[in-house]
Structures are given as structure tokens and as C-alpha cells.
Amino acid sequence: MTNKKRDQHDQRDERTDAEAPPSADERLRGLLAALTQLQQYLDERGSHTYELAQRFMANAKRDPSTRAYDERQATMLEYQHYIWKEIAGRVGQIRAIYDDAPVDAPAPDVDSPAAPDASAEATDAGEG
């Protein structure tokens, strides 16, 4: 093989290595990072809706003319807070299952009786 052909061959190998699809470990790490970001986002949304609910409740006490509206808004926002936190908890459970699992391990059944119950966990944590 001539030097020119060898150089072209080496360049092709470097391109192939650089363009190779990510390994299963890299994809899993990327997915877990995305799930972490999603969980943080959901927690933030839940906290924000809770704060809004508290503002509506405070306004309901201050202004009797809009009391019914403010109380309905607060109730709706408290429900949204609960839903956001519940979903964030479920994402956290999924993350915990796969965080230290080897890539070649079979995927556990998330809904199996051995899997922790998201609603029980939220209730135990005092959320709701």
C-alpha cells in the first residue's frame, strides 16, 4: 500500500470512529441525564403552581368580591401541584431503577408488585 493510500485509509478509519453511534452505556447515561432534567423541571413546575395557589388563597382572604374565583383557582393549582410532583416522583423511580443497572441486564417490570408505589411514596413524603 502506498503512503497516499495508507493516509486515506487512516483518515477513513478516524472518520468512522468519530461517526460511530454511541454505545449502549453512553445512550443510557444520556437518557438518565435527560430524566434528571425532566424530574427537576417537573419539581419546579409543581413548586411554582403551589406558590400560585398560596397567592390565590391569600387573595381570597383579602378580597371578598373575588373570593369564590380565587378559591377555585387555588384548588385547581393545588391539584396541578400534586400532579406535577406525582409525575416527578415517578420519573425519579424510573431513574433509580436504571441508574446503576448494567446495560445488558434485563429491564425490570416497573409495574410489578415489587416496584414501589408512586402514590404511596408521595403520601409518605407528605406531598399531596
Overview of the structural elements:
By secondary structure, this protein is mainly alpha-helical. Helices cover 75% and strands 0% of the residues. The chain has one domain. Helix 3 packs across helix 4 (118-124). The chain is elongated and about 85 Å long.
Could you name the ranges where pLDDT drops below 50 across 5 or more consecutive residues? 110-128
Helix content: over 70%
User: What number of domains?
Assistant: 1
| Principal-axis shape | elongated
- Termini separation: 72 Å
Number of helices: 4
The average pLDDT value, as a whole number, equals: 78
Strand proportion: under 5%
For the sheet with most strands, the description reads: none
Element pattern in H and E: HHHH
**Radius of gyration, in angstroms, nearest whole number:** 25 Å
Number of strands: 0
Going by helix content, strand content and strand pairing, the class is: mainly alpha
Give a topology summary.
Elements: H1 3-19, H2 24-62, H3 67-99, H4 118-124
Brief write-up:
The chain is built from four helices and no strands. It is mainly α.
Task: Please name the defining characteristics of this protein.
128 residues, mainly alpha, 4 helices, 0% strand, elongated, disordered C terminus
